[in-house]
Amino acid sequence: MPRLVGQIDISKTEAILDAASEVLAERGLAAPIEEIARRAGVSKQTIYNRYGGKTELIQALVGKRVDNITAPLRSPGAEEHPEETLAAYARSLLVVIEKGGYSLMRLTIQSAGELPELAREVYANGPMRSRGQLAEYLELETRAGRMKVEDPMQAAEFFGGMVMANRQIQALLRLPTGLTDAEIDRLAAEAARVFMRAYAA
Q1: How many CA atoms lie within 13 A of 29 on its CB side?
Q2: pLDDT of residue 8
């Protein structure tokens, strides 16, 4: 059965972003668009048509990462089950750290002196957007009477810090955290439990 145009576009987008993630991790910000295109199985022009350039491609990668991390906040039933939702969000953060998902952040930090605007955009569209979506979720829970959060953004920062702890530094320094899937689940559940106790309605 032939794929629809929209399905082909989605498939190409995924291929480009996956290839970009790999090539940038291997070769840094100097990675040529030609190599990304080759690995994605598309033309260089397709990448330029879609993203305009490498900076926009990096922003798309950051956006995809945030969408994956925050997906639990938008899942069916998320509003009715805050502790389980927060645990799922925490697990998403920990999986990014443990599974080597910090290469892009590492590259951004390395190039921040020469490309400060890129660093600002990655920060705004990455960590701050993720925390902002968590803050919006906490505000919804507070309005629904399931939680009592006076400053949702501050609470979101507290939760992210509690989950990431020193593991974020370890990831940036390429030091293994050694977390197993079971330990990730346990840490995520414990962070959600402690947070809910602090902000229970």
Answers
A1: 19
A2: 47
What does the chain come to in residues?
201
Distance between CA 91 and CA 182 in Å, rounded? Answer: 11
How many Å separate Cα 192 from the centre of its chain? 18
Say what the pLDDT of residue 1 is: 39
From CA 77, how far away is CA 186, in angstroms rounded?
22
Contacts of 134 (CB under 8 A, 6+ apart): 70, 73, 89, 156, 159, 160
- 43 contacts: CB under 8 Å, gap ≥ 6: 37
Residue 177 main-chain phi, psi, to 5 deg: -85, -25
Alpha helices in the chain (DSSP H): 5-27, 33-40, 44-51, 54-74, 82-98, 103-110, 116-125, 127-143, 152-164, 167-172, 181-198
Digit-coded pLDDT (tens) for 94-141:
998 887 667 788 888 888 888 899 899 989 999 999 999 999 999 999
Tokens coding 12: 């190409």
Radius of gyration, alpha carbons of the chain: 19
Contacts of 94 (CB under 8 A, 6+ apart): 163, 167, 179, 184, 187, 188
